[in-house]
Automatic annotation (TrEMBL):
This is Transporter. Pfam families: DUF6691. It comes from Leucothrix arctica. Keywords: Membrane, Transmembrane, Transmembrane helix. The chain crosses the membrane at residues 42-61, 82-100, 106-130. InterPro entries: DUF6691.
Length: 135
């Protein structure tokens, strides 16, 4: 049941990304171009996601456990460290330069765009590199 619910959530997430324009790199870069031809559309996407999270987490975290897992898996680190700041910086730079981040890039594979395939391949290679380096 856990895998089925994860698949359904992933499909809904991908459909939401596609419907909101987050899978379109030009739209994302337009949103990030604050001093040029700024496109505020994605501000509403992010705002609705934050609002949904703020409201729903108040109810979800009152439960003893998730529906399909034995315990909640929440982050425990509260501070900023070098790894977090480096990763966030690389994420932001890559998102700003390319217009993709991991979720929208995977969803964009459905459009069969070569740029999406290139991005996802590079992302997977980077994940493999980090995984091997940490071992």
């Amino acid at each position: 049941m856990f895998n089925i619910s994860a698949l359904i959530c992933g499909l809904l997430f991908g459909l939401g990304l596609a419907a909101s324009g987050m899978t379109n790199p030009e739209k994302v870069i337009g949103f990030l171009d604050l001093f040029g031809n700024w496109d505020p559309d994605l501000l509403f996407v992010m705002g609705s996601a934050v609002l949904t999270t703020v409201i729903s987490f108040r109810f979800v975290l009152k439960k003893d456990k998730p529906f399909f897992a034995p315990i909640f898996s929440l982050p425990t680190a509260a501070g900023l460290d070098k790894r977090l700041l480096t990763g966030a910086s690389l994420f932001g730079i890559g998102w700003g330069l390319y217009g993709y981040c991991p979720g929208p890039a995977v969803a964009a594979l459905g459009y069969l765009k070569p740029t999406a395939f290139l991005f996802v391949a590079a992302m997977l290679l980077g994940m493999l590199f980090v995984e091997r380096k940490l071992k």
